[in-house]
Protein 1
Amino acid sequence: MYKNKWIAYLFITPMLLFLIVFLIYPFSVNIYNSFFKYKSVLDRNPAYVGVNNYVQLFTTRQFKIAIENTLLLTILVIVFQVGIALILALLVSEIKRLAGFFKTAYFIPIVISATALGLMFLMFFREKGGLFNQILANFNLEPIRWLNGMDSNVTLASMFLPTIWQYIGFYFVIFLTALNTISDEMLEAAKIDGANDFTLTFKIKLPLIQNVTRVVLVLAITGTLKVFDLPYILNPIANPNGETFLLGTYMYHVSYFANKNLGLASAFAVILAILGVGFSGLVNVVFKQNKDI
């Protein structure tokens, strides 16, 4: 097989064709559509408008709000979602008893569909009889309108909480798998040389999983840029007054409710792709690949 290189090409060609047909070609058409104004999805004679669709998006107040909210969520995801997943993985990697239980418990939210999680949190956030307001009532505090109030900060926090919580288990499993690949002999040798737990964590474990951390950050950031399901279920009309749009929910709003302009939605998709590639490149620059691992 290694002598006949054509065998390798034979196996990778079907996947390459799949990518061309279902990814590269559709995205190229999407870029082309972004320079036209469609009256409807079935419009066969759209008007060429150049970069007007892009200009319209960047001059729209709600688009700017969506970018700001998404960037805020991205920062919170990096700090709390990835951070908590890493801490949990470091802790679970040190225990022997009940390790399987913790792995399963933390991974359960990934198994449950986003729709089910959204409906569950809708019940938690209910103004009357919701779990969180019942807790507040036990401390003689007034109930809070988590999702239907006029305070956009409260609504954003209510949307961000389940979104961040949902994927902690996913990144936890990735980190834990990476930590389990570290040689026990290396850790034992470090302990013999006098390394304490702090040194083991920051001088050995974290540097050795640097490449995995880089991949996790790319997945977390790109996933946050296009997140849609949970925020939309919790707050489909972006209360209050469109102040809680994210890029994913606002693109859906533009595509199906605002004007149904296929060209504008295509421009939105191009911008989203550029942001994803840009942030991924930034992560790769900041967290350079460790080729020694």
Protein 2
Amino acid sequence: MCGRYTITITFEELMMRYFADIPSVPFHLPRYNVAPTQMMPAVVNDGRRNRLGLLRWGLIPPWAADEKAGNRMINARAETLEDRPAYREAFRRRRCLIPADGFYEWKTVPGGAKRPYRIVLKSGELFSMAALYETWTSPDGGKVSSFAIVTTEPNGLMADIHDRMPVILRPADEALWLNRDEQDPGRLKELLIPYPQEEMDAYEVHQRVGSPANDDPACLEKVTG
């Protein structure tokens, strides 16, 4: 799964990376320990150009009784997107990108303890995680737009840490994923593969990343010794 991530660039760098329109709602960057239920920047395409906006992490299906349903839907398995009612329509029509420059995962070690790792690109560059989004309307008419990160089987690097990883898209594939006119599941599924392990790196970080209250540069520090 993917339950925490980082985006440690500035707002200006984010805009330049995606050539996106300025969002109507401001948000704060950098972020060192993003957690579910938080509002985070996402990239969608309106048919003409990319747009940046804030979405709540944890997809709330349109038919959900309340927004708490999203707390259980932070990830969507690539293998079952067409089968799950919560994700089927979003997979065809409402796809987005979640910008990140790292994500955290917990490795189970002998004895049952779990140690957090940060996984990044060796280049240090920003990357895009494939995601789906929906807009839910509450009984009182309020609207909440939310997302789930798509996950796939692990590459060789990740297999030693966890049995799932987020789908990281190549920059050349981002436009296809965002294209609302593209609704061929077969073509879209070709993108939902593990990112090459030789282009990624992982290192152990401090247990403090386990608490969403800790959101500072110390979360990125490598555990040594």
